[in-house]
Amino acid sequence: MWPIEFVGAAWRPLCGALSFWSFGVMALSFLAYFLRSWRHLVIATSLLPLPLLLTWWYLPESPRWLALQGRMEEAEEVLCLVAKRNGKPPPDVSGLKRFVEEENVKKEGLQKYSYWDLFRTPMYIKYTLVLMYSWFSAAAVYYGLSLNVKNLPGDRYINNFLQGVFEFPIVLSTIPCNKVGGRKKTLFGFTMLAGLCCLSVLAIDVAGKLEELSLLATVFSMLGKAFMSAAWVSISLLTGELFPTVVRNIAGGATSVVGRIGAIVAPQFVYLGKLSKPLPFIAFGSLAISAAFLGLLLTETKNKPLPDNLPPWDKKTYRLCFKDSCQENGAIAVQSQETVASSV
Known about the structure:
Helix content: 55-70%
Largest sheet: none
Strand content: under 5%
Low-confidence stretches: 316-343
């Protein structure tokens, strides 16, 4: 959520795709190989991220969020800092100041937001519920396939390492896909591919050739996880782009919590493998394919400015109120977006 508020629309697909997650998966294989005790492995993986806490003092606050909180001086400082580091002149924020002042007058001061605001209009209800299910499905399938590596033929450490190798280039491919095809098509394509890979393992078992084609089943499993990782990048991007700045972190937190629930239930799906090896893949395939079609209900956000404010509560004029507010907020979003984009 934080990086996309610093860049323009053309650069947002890079924010989630350019990560070291895949390298972490590969590194975990080496750690697990040398630290066979799960207690030692938990301690090691818990200590490794601690130095990242030190970066908290060096990371600037989002200028969009600062502006909407009425902290224009701090927002201008951040924008000037970004411009300076990129060798560009300080941006003109006079237009942004005017928009923010007008908005604060209309709202009669700063407003506090909560999780209930994610359900403020029918459209945001749809966004929230669909994205929650998408996060749940992505986490359940991704971590389920990760844990199911023990049921695959071959060495579990090598298989887990290869999963990270498969994942890296496929996740990178989301950058051109999101730029050219858009977020919805990218999300649908990768989620559908993940589901089809899982169901392919089922097809091999139904054909009675699971033992004979064990290598092919392993490849399908690894590809399914890699495709779901790529879909997760698009889900995260859509979550940040669909919700306005004032509730973007709340939306990201709420959907992520539901995603963690998916991670919690993932071992239960893997446990089905004791009854029949293809059963986990039936569950994973069904979750992925259903999430792919539900994702088509979301609005395309390719090359669109980030929204900043929510529409006001109005039960009688829900649709009209949202339409007017969206147009007005769009002007503010365009101005702030252009300001940030010109600074980076």
